[in-house]
Amino acid sequence: RQDGAPLPHIEEKGAFFEVEVLEVQHYTETLFSFRTARPQSFRFRAGEFVMIGLEGEKKPVLRAYSIASPTWDEALEFYSIKVPDGALTSRLRNIAPGDRILLGKKPTGTLVSEALRPGRRLYLFSTGTGAAPFASLIREPDIYERFDEVILTHTCRTLAELAYTEQLVETVRQDPLVGEFANGKLVYFNSVTREEGPRMGRITDLIDTGKLFEMLSREPLDPSRDRAMVCGSFEMLNDLKHLLEARGFEEGSNARPGDFVVEKAFSGEGI
Ligand code: FAD
Ligand code: A2P
């Protein structure tokens, strides 16, 4: 913010804040991200989600959203789907700088580093908008102090849908502060499933066949060394959970840290 520029709008409204939209970026017909003002009292742990929404005719329309920005950022960032007839996103897709959205006061969630036992290598497995919580985590210097290596995987149907994480990883690498921590520790792997691309296949298949580890030049998953966080559709979570459990990984929670944690990127079948 330039000196002298007016402060962005932030107002308390009961259990919510009303915050100003600062920036919007569209990637595809179905994906966009936006940044909003952040109330000073709004604290969260990297990887958590919060309710956000818009005022409605009778009552507000609210949905769960992962916070994609790191905890040190003075703004908040979200990465969003555009569901054609979605109650929230058919409107949210049209937001512009200067508009206002509702922001819940109580972030929560399981994709937090405190829910994992100490380990050496952290895998962040994501599909679709499931990359959002990891966009926060890979920008936290602390994650690189906890783990020797952080491997983010993002799988989408098409190459265009990888744009958000591709840009993000590039920004992290160039960031004067986080780039230094991430240097030599952050590994990014992406693949597509419904279009020709340099790397193809569902992450579950790539793990099962061992191709992921061949491509990364890393040893296969091992609970004595590796930890994992998983975010994607209900089916993706289930399949990965079984895969991890079959290799001896134990699921963790805030109350009882384990070798891996999962969180749904959305409810329902997906679009
Ligand atoms: P809804 O009526 O909520 O959904 C309609 C249908 O669209 C769903 O049944 C489902 O089939 C499909 N759908 C909804 N969300 C998605 C999605 N993200 N990807 C693919 N298909 C989807 N959404 C985000 O875009 N970004 C996030 O960071 C995010 N974090 C979430 C965290 C949690 C813990 C949960 C439970 C959901 C999260 N969602 C996220 C989903 C979000 O809450 C809404 O469902 C989404 O914004 C669409 O809202 P809607 O009212 O337009 O449509
Ligand atoms: P696919 O194209 O083979 O269905 P979605 O948008 O449906 O959530 O999908 C996002 C990505 O996640 C797609 O590449 C999709 O692959 C993949 N995917 C969907 N279901 C699973 C699953 N059960 N396990 C692993 N990957 C999945």
Question: If you had to describe this structure to a student in words, what would you say it looks like?
Answer:
The protein is of the alpha/beta class. The protein folds into two domains: 10-104, Elongation Factor Tu (Ef-tu), domain 3 (Beta Barrel); 113-264, 3-Layer(aba) Sandwich (Rossmann fold). Helix content is 21%, strand content 30%. The chain contains eight helices and twelve strands. The chain has helices at residues 89-92, 132-137, 141-146, 163-174, 178-182, 203-208, 211-216, 234-246; strands spanning 10-13, 16-28, 31-37, 49-54, 61-66, 75-81, 100-104, 121-127, 149-156, 186-192, 226-232, 260-264. Bound molecules: flavin-adenine dinucleotide (FAD) and adenosine-2'-5'-diphosphate. Flavin-adenine dinucleotide binds next to strand 5, strand 6, helix 1 and strand 12. Residues 14-114 form the FAD-binding FR-type domain. It catalyses: 2 reduced [2Fe-2S]-[ferredoxin] + NADP(+) + H(+) = 2 oxidized [2Fe-2S]-[ferredoxin] + NADPH. Its EC number is 1.18.1.2.
